[in-house]
Amino acid sequence: MPLDDPVLMGPGPSSCHPEVLAALGAPMLGHLDPIFLDELDETCARLRQVFRTDNELTYPVSGTGSAGVEAALVATVRPGSEVVVGVNGYFGERMAEMADRLGGRVHRAEVAWGEPLGADAVLAAHAAPDVIALVHAETSTGVENDVAAVAAAKGDALLVVDAVTSLGGIPVEVDAWGIDVCCSATQKCLGAPPGLAPITFSERARSRRVARPTSWYLDPGPIAAYVTGDTGRRYHHTAPVPLVRALHVALGLLLDEGLEAVWARHRACGDALRSGLSKLGLEVLVEPAAALPQLTVVEVAGAFGRGQGEAAARARLRSELGIEVGGGVGEYAGRVWRIGSMGHGASARNVVLLLAAIAEVLGR
Ligand SMILES: *Cc1c(COP(=O)(O)O)cnc(C)c1O
Hints:
Elements: E1 7-8, H1 18-24, H2 34-51, E2 57-62, H3 65-74, E3 82-87, H4 90-101, E4 105-110, H5 119-125, E5 131-135, E6 137-138, E7 143-144, H6 147-152, E8 158-162, H7 174-177, E9 181-183, E10 196-201, H8 203-207, H9 220-228, H10 241-257, H11 259-279, E11 283-284, E12 295-299, H12 301-304, H13 308-321, E13 323-324, E14 326-327, E15 336-340, H14 348-362
Parallel strand pairs: 1-13, 3-4, 3-5, 5-8, 8-9
Antiparallel strand pairs: 2-10, 6-7, 9-10, 11-12, 12-15, 14-15
Helix pairs in contact: 1-10, 2-10, 11-14, 13-14
Bound molecules: pyridoxal-5'-phosphate.
C-alpha cells in the first residue's frame, strides 16, 4: 500500500495546512446561515486582498479552476467577438477551445512551448480585439507570461487572465495592471482543497458583460445578488459550504503570513529546487527570467528513459517514498516532470525531501 499521507509536489492539488483540513470537518451550516454568510463575506474580502483589487464582484465560483475560466469567458465572449488567445501550452489551448465553443472568432497569439508570451505576440494577432485571454502561469510548461505588459497594451479590449497557478504564488496585481476578469483555483498556491475557483470582475467587465450567457450556472449576474448581498441574499445554488469554510481558513493563514512574505517563500523554494535539480544533472527547461518558482519543469527522459522509464520512476517516488510529482502533458508527455512547490507545500523541508528522494530513485 502506498503511504496515505503523501507530500503533494505535482501541479496541484497541493498539500493543505492541518487547520484548513480541520475546517472541512466542522459542523455543517446552511448556505443562508448567518455564521456562514459572515464567513463568505470575509472570504470575498480576503480574496480582494489576495487579488489586489477593490472590485466588488469578487467571489469563489462553485467548481474547480476550469469552471472559473469558463465563467470568465461565458461572461465576456459573444458569438462573433474578436478574441485573441495566448497559446504557449496546454491551458492556453483550452482557453482557445472554450472561446471557440462560445462562438468567438479566435485569433491565436502563439509562441513555442517553453517560451513566454508578451505584448508583441498578442498585438500581432489582432489590431482591436474585444477580448484578450491569457494564462498567467502556464502549468504545462512552467512559464510565466507577461500579463502586466499585455495589460498595458490591451487598448479597448477586456483582458481575461487565468491566474489559476499564479495567485498566491507570484505577484498578481489585478487593479494596478488593469486585468478585467481574473480567475484562479483553490488547490494550487492558495493551499485549500480543490472545488472552488475564485474570480473577480472589474466594473468595466461588469458593465460590458454578456447579458444572458449560455451557461445559467456560471452567469455572474444572479450570483452577484447572493455573494454581495446587494438585493438581499437569494438562493441561486447551494454554496459548497465546507469548501468555502476551508478557503476562509487558508486565506486567513496566507494573509497572516503576508502576501509579500508568501511570494518570497515560493521564490526561495523555486530557486532551491532549480539549483538542486541542476546539481543532480537534470535539465530545467525554462530560462530563469520566465521560470515559475511554484512550478518547475525538468527534463527527465535522459535520466529515466522516455515513457515507461519516467512513469516507473514517478510511481516509485509515490509508492516507496510518499511523494507525488506530475508527469508531462501534450508536447511534454513522457519527457518531463512537473514539480509543484505551492501553498503550504512550498517549504524548504519539502524541497530537501524531494531532492534526496530523486537522488535515491536515480541511484546516486
Ligand atoms: C490547474 C489549472 C487549470 C484547471 O484547474 P482545475 O482546477 O483542474 O479545473 C486551469 N488553468 C491552469 C493554468 C491550471 O494550472
